[in-house]
Design goal:
alpha+beta, Aminopeptidase, Alpha-Beta Plaits, eight-stranded mixed beta sheet, 33% helix
Length: 404
């Protein structure tokens, strides 16, 4: 029997177990950096299958190791994330969250269960490939500074040194049975913009006695828009017209606690800045600071500006991604492989992609006929669990192809 068929048979054999893994994790969600019981559950499955691991990395992180023949030849890293979101689940599934105010609404239960299934398959086939598989179960993907960045600082990419990294993510807008890939730029960096403008409040009718910070806030927003004009391309992505780099600067909050006849003393602005080039990212942040300070000087008000650095942009290595895509074609057939559009959302796997040749691909989990269409980060998110028949075996085959 060919290796690919062996892997498919093993994926089918372990399918029910992987479903149970996923349901257990889904029923017992834990928020970012609080994934203690989830970590214990992962370790219990690894113990059952005699897979060696180190736990307690960044408190709840786990790193497992599967050595094939000639283990020093090459090391492939697989990433799964453990944390849930602070959302009250509103589904009617029998495995609904037991923890009030917490829900696996981004599919991390799927990622962890799938990678556990992949680990089981690869452990059974470790005499068939050369190299080492390192499996990273990370905390805190959903919040800054991101569990991936902290595990990198703890040395997850070394001992043994990682040569390539792979991660998959649920994609509810893609039908189950399909997967998607994109080489090079894929997801954006994400920085938070926080601006407090301190003017002089007063009675709205007494125009000469106040200095309205609302006008300053409006001017800052307009000037940033003027300095960074954008157009929307055919993929629906906003690009800076000067250099064609995908870019978004958007303010989603403006708060001035005045009234119809009360000018507030302070106004608070909050926004997001996203792009896909690190040099451009730094340049824009400096320009935002300059624009904000210049406007405040014109209006003679004070400003407190803070730009919080978020995740870097995610770039898929061409060679690694092409190899993964070809493996997926072999496993699923070319008709089930899709090309992904750019996304301005963010993912902390980007920290890994910045330093290790990587591939971050999408797993179709939606099913319109079954009514499984809710997006991630919603209270009604769910998946077609048939995706778990694909996720474990596909990733195992992708890894196998990397370690031939």
């Amino acid at each position: 029997m060919s290796t690919i068929n062996t892997i498919k048979n093993l994926a089918n054999l372990h399918f029910k177990d992987v479903v149970e893994f996923r349901r257990h994790i889904h029923q017992n969600p834990e928020l970012s950096f609080q994934e203690f019981k989830t970590s214990e559950f992962v370790c219990s499955i690894l113990d059952k299958h005699s897979i060696s691991y180190t736990k307690g990395i960044v408190k709840t992180g786990v790193v497992a190791i599967i050595e094939g023949k000639n283990p020093t030849k090459k090391t492939i890293l697989l990433r799964a994330d453990l944390d849930a979101l602070p959302i009250e689940e509103k589904t009617t599934v029998k495995y609904i969250s037991k923890n009030s105010g917490a829900m696996h609404a981004c599919g991390h239960d799927v990622h962890t269960a799938s990678v556990l299934g992949t680990a089981i398959i690869l452990n059974e086939l470790k005499s068939e490939f050369e190299g080492t598989v390192k499996i990273m179960f990370q905390p805190g993907e959903e919040v800054l500074p991101g569990g991936a960045s902290l595990m990198i600082k703890e040395g997850v990419l070394h001992n043994p040194k990682v040569d390539a990294a792979i991660a998959q993510h649920v994609f509810p807008s893609m039908e189950v049975g399909k997967v998607g890939f994109r080489s090079e730029m894929y997801m954006a960096s994400t920085d938070e913009i926080h601006i407090t403008i301190i003017g002089k409040g007063g009675h709205a009718a007494m125009a000469g006695e106040y200095n309205n910070p609302l006008l300053v806030a409006a001017s800052i927003i307009k000037e940033i828009e003027k300095q960074f004009p954008f157009v929307i391309d055919d993929e629906g992505v906003s690009r800076n017209t000067n250099n064609n780099i995908p870019t978004v600067i958007a303010f989603g909050k403006i708060e001035g606690k005045g009234a119809t006849n009360v000018i507030p003393e302070t106004v608070y602005l909050a926004g997001t800045f996203r792009t896909m080039d690190e040099l451009w990212r730094n340049e824009v942040k400096e320009k935002i600071k300059q624009i904000s300070n210049d406007v405040c000087q014109i209006y003679k008000v004070k400003i407190d500006l803070n730009i919080i650095d978020g995740y870097p942009f995610l770039s898929n290595d061409i060679a690694v991604t092409n190899l993964c895509k070809q493996a997926a074609i072999e496993y699923l057939g070319e008709d089930n492989i899709e090309d992904l559009p750019l996304r301005m959302t963010a993912e902390d796997f980007a920290y890994i992609s910045q330093v290790v040749p990587s591939c971050f691909y999408r797993l179709g989990t939606g099913n319109k006929l079954k009514g499984i269409t809710s997006g991630v980060h919603t209270a009604t998110f769910d998946i077609d669990e048939d995706a778990l028949k694909i996720s474990t075996g596909l990733m195992a085959w992708i890894v196998f192809k990397q370690l031939l």
